């Protein structure tokens, strides 16, 4: 069995469900390529009674034959598991009836795991899939104490809308749902160690900045190659391993994938994000339920996040890109994909300087728990947000990419710097930091105080201007 990295909480929960003495219906979801299928197949290897994976819509032309293709694939899976005496089904009701007959034949009284992977792909337009699936669970599975139905899907909005929040026949039927997240920095380190790949923590952070901790992408790393060499081979050149991954990523999940890509391409241009109205104006997508649904789907699939900037009314929501892979792809892969040595030639140049700053900030946001632990405030109620104030004729603007507002009347104003050595606070930098502190202090009560917190790779160099720093978090802290 291949080693499962991390996922300890998810494994414990799935094993608990397996050992229960009732019918279980669990949905496992998360970003595409995050490792849902690998987890289920490896954890339950040798214990799965029936498994089937929906056919990807990426390589199918139009809707005309999609239902037929899905039904044929489902039928062939049943044949592979021992189904005999049935013709190819013409409807999903018939297909699930055949599955029931197969499971009856295979039933020896022990736990039966039915694993349906990429379930949303099976629900093609006008196919009647969902009603047939409801009937399969409600009319057959739920009455059998030894059934464990596990479904997976990368289309998170489909899983949540049709299973978790279903108001029809599947209302309240899920017995559990598990969201699988990308690897943390520590889990990335454990993965590389398990594969015998030697990378420094500095380079592991850079791999997170490019590939976002997505296990499928990391699986293409080879031992004996540097971070730059691996990235060149995986993303650049004539025939990279992840050729056209950006388009395939969205085409496989979203029916309106072109609208989704328009929004992602806009969000990559401004780190702090855009309001719904700004997105509509810039992309030409009309304001209304359609745009709201698309933004919700992108948010639920962890490509973007919705947040309210510090000091703004709740209705002033912003949407920002949080997917590291999409950020790197649009900024560097698309414009330079034919340059097979792009990373090797540019990793230490100014070409990638601005990206490193933005990408490291995203990594810090994704490791908020580790940052709070390093600040010894893990038990203090707190919230994280960003803040941006536009300048005018009299005052310069200010932008703070991470604020930690705490219940103990302290606000951590976090500055994140990704450097190859200790960070040096210059006279000019100290002036900028004092301006941000002054601007922020005007929004706080007299009870509150500001701690300037530097989150850096190797700490802040002691010097004439470093005394402004109250707290420090370093790269190693993010691995805890």
Structure description:
The chain is of the alpha/beta class. It folds into four domains: 8-179, P-loop containing nucleotide triphosphate hydrolases (Rossmann fold, 3-Layer(aba) Sandwich); 185-240 and 337-358, no CATH class; 247-326, Winged helix-like DNA-binding domain superfamily/Winged helix DNA-binding domain (Arc Repressor Mutant, subunit A, Orthogonal Bundle); 367-478, Trna Endonuclease, Chain: A, domain 1, CATH 3.40.1350. It is built from 21 helices and 13 strands. It has helices at 8-19, 36-43, 66-80, 92-106, 119-122, 129-139, 156-164, 185-194, 201-211, 215-218, 227-235, 245-251, 257-267, 276-283, 289-300, 324-336, 342-346, 353-366, 368-374, 427-441, 475-478; strands spanning 24-29, 48-53, 112-117, 147-153, 176-179, 274-275, 304-307, 318-321, 382-389, 398-406, 410-417, 449-456, 471-473. The protein has a five-stranded parallel beta sheet, sandwiched between helices. A hairpin with an 8-residue loop joins strand 9 and strand 10. It is elongated, with a radius of gyration of 25 Å.
């Amino acid at each position: 069995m291949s080693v499962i990295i991390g996922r300890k909480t998810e494994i414990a929960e799935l094993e608990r469900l397996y050992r229960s003495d009732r019918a279980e219906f669990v949905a496992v979801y998360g970003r595409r390529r995050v490792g849902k299928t690998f987890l289920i197949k490896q954890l339950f290897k040798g214990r799965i009674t029936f498994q089937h994976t929906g056919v990807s819509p990426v390589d199918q032309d139009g809707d005309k034959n999609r239902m037929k293709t899905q039904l044929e694939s489902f039928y062939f899976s049943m044949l592979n598991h021992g189904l005999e005496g049935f013709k190819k089904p013409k409807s999903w009701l018939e297909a699930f009836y055949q599955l029931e007959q197969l499971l009856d034949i295979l039933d020896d009284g022990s736990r039966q795991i039915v694993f349906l992977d990429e379930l949303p792909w099976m629900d093609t337009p006008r196919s009647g899939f969902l009603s047939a699936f409801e009937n399969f669970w409600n009319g057959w599975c739920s009455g059998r104490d030894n059934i464990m139905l596990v479904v997976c899907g990368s289309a998170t909005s489909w899983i949540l809308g049709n299973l978790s929040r279903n108001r029809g026949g599947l209302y309240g039927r899920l017995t559990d749902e598990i969201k699988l997240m990308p690897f943390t920095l520590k889990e990335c380190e454990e993965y590389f160690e398990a594969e015998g790949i030697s990378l420094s923590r500095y380079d592991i952070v850079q791999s997170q900045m490019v590939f976002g901790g997505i296990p499928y992408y990391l699986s293409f790393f080879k031992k004996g190659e540097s971070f730059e060499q691996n990235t060149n081979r995986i993303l650049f050149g004539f025939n990279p391993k992840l050729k056209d991954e950006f388009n395939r990523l969205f085409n496989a999940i979203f029916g309106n994938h072109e609208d989704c890509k328009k929004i992602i391409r806009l969000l990559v241009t401004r780190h702090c994000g855009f309001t719904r109205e700004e997105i509509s104006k810039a992309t030409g997508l009309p304001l209304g339920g359609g745009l709201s649904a698309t933004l919700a789907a992108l948010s639920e699939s962890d490509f973007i996040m919705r947040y309210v900037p510090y000091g703004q009314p709740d209705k002033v929501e912003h949407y920002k890109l949080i997917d590291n892979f999409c950020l790197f792809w649009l900024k560097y892969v698309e414009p330079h994909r034919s340059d097979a040595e792009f990373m090797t030639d540019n990793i230490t140049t100014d070409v990638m300087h601005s990206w490193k700053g933005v990408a490291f900030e995203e990594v810090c946001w994704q490791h908020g728990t580790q940052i709070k632990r390093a600040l010894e405030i893990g038990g203090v109620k707190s919230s994280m947000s960003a803040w941006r104030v536009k300048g005018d004729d009299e005052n310069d603007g200010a932008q703070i990419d991470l604020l930690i507002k705490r219940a103990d009347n302290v606000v951590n104003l976090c500055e994140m710097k990704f450097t190859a050595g200790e960070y040096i606070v210059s006279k000019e930098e100290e002036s900028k930091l004092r301006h941000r502190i002054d601007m922020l202090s005007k929004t706080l009560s007299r009870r509150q105080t500001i701690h300037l917190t530097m989150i850096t790779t190797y700490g802040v160099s002691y010097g004439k201007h470093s005394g402004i720093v109250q707290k420090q978090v370093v790269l190693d802290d993010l691995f805890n």
